[in-house]
Amino acid sequence: MTTPKKTSFEVSAEKRFWLNDGTILSSLKELDNAFGKMNESVWKHHVTKDRNDFANWVEGVFQEKKLGLAIRKAKTAKAAGKLVRSKVEGARLWTFF
Prior knowledge:
By secondary structure, this protein is mainly alpha-helical. The chain is built from 5 helices and 2 strands, in the order E-E-H-H-H-H-H. 55% of the residues lie in helices and 4% in strands.
C-alpha cells in the first residue's frame, strides 16, 4: 500500500479523485487548481448537506483530518481552494529542514 508523500501530497493512480466533469486529480496541488476553475454544478455534485467528497478524499487518502474538517466548513470551491493552497504552500516551506 502506497501512502502519499507529505511534501508533495501526491497519490498513486488507484487513489486519484475523479470529478464529475471528467477531471482526474492526483495531488492536493491539483485539487487547489481544480477549485480555482470549478463551476458551481461540479461543486454541488460533490458537496451536499449529507456528504463532502473533497473532505472525504483529503481525510481518507492524505490522512489530513484538520484540512478535511476545514474543507467541510467551506461554502465555495474558492474558499476550499484557499485552505488547500495554504496546506500545500505551508508544507513546501518546511521541506528544507
